[in-house]
Amino acid sequence: MTLIEQFQQQLQRQPHSHFLIALSGGLDSTVLLALLAKLREKQPHFQLRAIHIHHGLSPNADDWTRHCQQLCQQFSIPLIVEKVQLTQGMGIEAAARQARYHAIQRHILPQEMLVTAHHQQDQTETFFLALKRGSGVSGLSAMKTQSAVFNFTIFRPLLPFSRQQLHQYAIENQLSWIEDESNQNNQYERNFLRNQILPQLRERWTYFDQAVQRSATHCAEQQQLLAELLQPELEKYLDKTHRTFDLTDFSQWSDLKQKALLRLWLETLQQPMPSTKQLEQLIQDVIFAEMDRNPQFQLGDKMLRRYQHRLYLTEHFADLRQLSLPVTLNQPITLPDKLGQICLTETPTGVQAMWQDYIQPLPKPEAPISIRFAYSGKVRNLNGINQDIKKCWQAHNIPVWQRNRIPLIFYGETFQSAVGFFQNFI
């Protein structure tokens, strides 16, 4: 059976027909592009696009972009070129990976699958990197043929094939590709394995990559079985969106069950797996923190926070406490940090504030109106009783971090309302 026939079998195992191809211009992704273009001749319903991420790390990056443009023009495949900047404070490999995924997330269409050119040798490297980190069965599962990350699906149809097979196909079909000079830099962990360690193992054991792939498959099967057994238990502790985890019974579970359910919950939300040390820190410093505290833990670009016996997964929010926005009546205001728009309009009896699904009637203003996101004074309720604003938030079950994300209406320096929740009856 030829490589194209085997590749066609891989594609027939899943129902999708819209693919976004991750194209670096190297050997592997060039072969992937050519294979999909060839298959499109037999399957005209296939819809193909490609995306090339320009990291700007190499002096040859512009040449690689031009090469990818020529390739896609040759195969009549639309190409997206996205230039990215790497986040400071993390390793180059991790920062580049995160930048790629964020760029792809901006461009991928709802019906598309991202297709990558990972092959058998890539799988071996991923397995060894997981082994180096001390990963469990989930990490040692390495790469799956199909998985989800950042709310889109990744398809890896070349995993059963060796790089030698891809190289032979490229030569036979007279494909051209670029060579990334950084592949020879053994400071990068994957290159160190690829260039120095794994060649010796393959020389000693010819079928080493196939053996590693079998081990990764066994680990994946064990992880899947564990997930199936724990899923009914996990469902008892999730809200409808699965973004909060009920901690009511958490202290009664064994350490193993605590960690397994947390990992499964995070996997359900397509979040990166915490290391054992991170997981222990999350349990000790957040879940088992004193009840009067509001602990939080950063995991990737998200935050894990506890409030009233629930663990929340949230964004990493901006600090808005010093912000004050002047209000002009009848003119919408765009709020910061993805909080949407708010508009205060005049009514016969006063003012009406509209934000998201909330409508808040207010008295006529006697001073300039502003929107703020922090207040620590007293609030008078409908019965004329003054109470600390903290009590008002607690009465509405608003988590501590959310309190600084709800627009507060001020007339001059006087607090008037937390839009949609409570009002100061002065």
UniProtKB/TrEMBL annotation:
One of its GO terms (molecular function) is tRNA(Ile)-lysidine synthase activity. ATP binds at residues 24-29. One of its GO terms (cellular component) is cytoplasm. The keyword Nucleotide-binding applies. It is found in: Cytoplasm. It holds the Pfam family TilS. Residues 369-425 form the Lysidine-tRNA(Ile) synthetase C-terminal domain. The keyword Ligase applies. It comes from the Bacteria. Coiled coil: none annotated. It catalyses: cytidine(34) in tRNA(Ile2) + L-lysine + ATP = lysidine(34) in tRNA(Ile2) + AMP + diphosphate + H(+). Its EC number is 6.3.4.19. GO terms for biological process: tRNA modification. Keywords: ATP-binding, Cytoplasm, Ligase, Nucleotide-binding, tRNA processing. CDD domains: TilS_N. InterPro entries: Lysidine-tRNA-synth_C, Rossmann-like_a/b/a_fold, TilS/TtcA_N, tRNA_Ile_lys_synt, tRNA_Ile_lys_synt_N, tRNA_Ile_lys_synt_subst-bd. Ligates lysine onto the cytidine present at position 34 of the AUA codon-specific tRNA(Ile) that contains the anticodon CAU, in an ATP-dependent manner. Cytidine is converted to lysidine, thus changing the amino acid specificity of the tRNA from methionine to isoleucine. Belongs to the tRNA(Ile)-lysidine synthase family. The N-terminal region contains the highly conserved SGGXDS motif, predicted to be a P-loop motif involved in ATP binding. This is tRNA(Ile)-lysidine synthase. It comes from Avibacterium volantium (Pasteurella volantium).
